């Protein structure tokens, strides 16, 4: 029997898991219906769909990690899928990065030749960026699985063993080496959006009070989307580092809090993306109305 705090923890992670699956599922279904109706998918829809599919996979792996912590499945079973989880995690991070770049290129107004070139060609570059991200993630996955994964296949001890902790710490050290590049690109996108918003605000000061400013609103929505990703991913990254440092006692409150926080990032950010996209938001409302009518 599970202890009371473990039962509460399990209920929380189930709610978190279902929220993430629902939010990302809405994105995939809405864009899938759009493809069926229009026989094509716009670049933004393609990016959102790839991001949502990767996050569904990430959410599944995180949920299985919770099950392993609760001893519902063995850790060795979870370790066998590490290469797949690595591929999904890196792909998801790059898809989110290109989404931020896409928002920046479409909304920001920077009078630099390189930025103007990107603004004119970003839509055509999206499929190639996605393909490049998949190839990069696949290569990284192969290198990690060949040289870095040190946990023996016949290891029969639990997570709390010293060898397991050392192997996981080393694994996570190499696991996060690829994070700085996409996060740096995100920071550049935010700085460009802030610069563009500031210049646009100065240009609009002479307009009559009460005049609507859709471009300013678009700037703010894009910045909120990118900033929310950075904040949530930073929390996700910090929790991974705390867990891999093996300073937390297994199944302690601090340990369970860190592990449960891992699943917050892919579910909450996708929910924010839905709320900031009128098309996705409208379809989510229709889905809830349909549920109420069926009750």
What does this structure look like?
With 295 residues, this protein is an all-alpha fold. 80% of the residues lie in helices and 0% in strands. It is built from eleven helices and no strands. It has helices at 4-38, 43-69, 75-79, 82-107, 113-147, 162-175, 180-203, 214-244, 253-262, 264-275, 278-294. The chain is globular and about 60 Å long.
Strands, total number: 0
Mean pLDDT: 77
Provide the gyration radius in Å. Answer: 21 Å
Cα-to-Cα separation, first versus last residue: 34 Å
How is the biggest beta sheet arranged? none
Tally the helices. 11
N-to-C order of helices and strands: HHHHHHHHHHH
Poorly predicted runs are: 147-160
Overall helicity: over 70%
Structural class: mainly alpha
Shape: globular
Secondary structure elements and their pairing?
Elements: H1 4-38, H2 43-69, H3 75-79, H4 82-107, H5 113-147, H6 162-175, H7 180-203, H8 214-244, H9 253-262, H10 264-275, H11 278-294
Helix pairs in contact: 1-2, 1-10, 2-4, 2-5, 4-5, 4-7, 4-8, 6-8, 7-8, 8-9, 8-10
What would a concise description of this structure say?
This protein has 11 helices and no strands. It is mainly alpha-helical and 295 residues long.
Which features does this protein show?
globular, 295 residues, 11 helices, single chain, mainly alpha
């Amino acid at each position: 029997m599970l202890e009371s705090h473990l039962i509460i923890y399990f209920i929380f992670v189930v709610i978190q898991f279902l929220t993430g699956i629902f939010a990302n599922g809405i994105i995939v279904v809405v864009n899938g219906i759009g493809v069926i109706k229009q026989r094509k998918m716009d670049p933004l829809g393609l990016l959102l769909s790839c991001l949502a599919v990767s996050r569904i996979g990430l959410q599944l792996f995180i949920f299985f990690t919770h099950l392993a912590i609760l001893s519902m499945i063995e850790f060795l079973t979870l370790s066998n899928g590490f290469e797949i989880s690595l591929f999904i995690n890196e792909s998801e991070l790059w898809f989110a990065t290109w989404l931020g770049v896409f928002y920046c290129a479409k909304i920001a107004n920077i009078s630099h030749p390189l930025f103007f070139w990107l603004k004119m060609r970003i839509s055509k570059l999206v499929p190639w960026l996605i393909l490049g991200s998949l190839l990069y993630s696949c290569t990284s996955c192969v290198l990690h699985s060949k040289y870095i994964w040190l946990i023996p296949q016949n290891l029969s001890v639990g997570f709390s063993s010293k060898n397991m902790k050392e192997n996981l710490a080393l694994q996570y050290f190499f696991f996060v080496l690829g994070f700085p590049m996409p996060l740096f690109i995100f920071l550049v996108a935010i700085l460009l959006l802030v610069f563009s918003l500031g210049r646009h605000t100065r240009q609009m000061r002479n307009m009559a009070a009460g005049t609507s400013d859709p471009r300013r609103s678009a700037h703010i929505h894009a910045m909120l989307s990118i900033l929310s990703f950075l904040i949530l991913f930073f929390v996700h990254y910090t929790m991974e580092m705390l867990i891999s440092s093996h300073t937390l006692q297994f199944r302690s409150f601090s340990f369970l809090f860190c592990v449960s926080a891992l699943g917050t990032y892919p579910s909450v950010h996708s929910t924010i993306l839905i709320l900031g996209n009128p098309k996705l938001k409208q379809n989510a409302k229709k889905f809830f109305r349909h549920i109420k009518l069926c009750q």
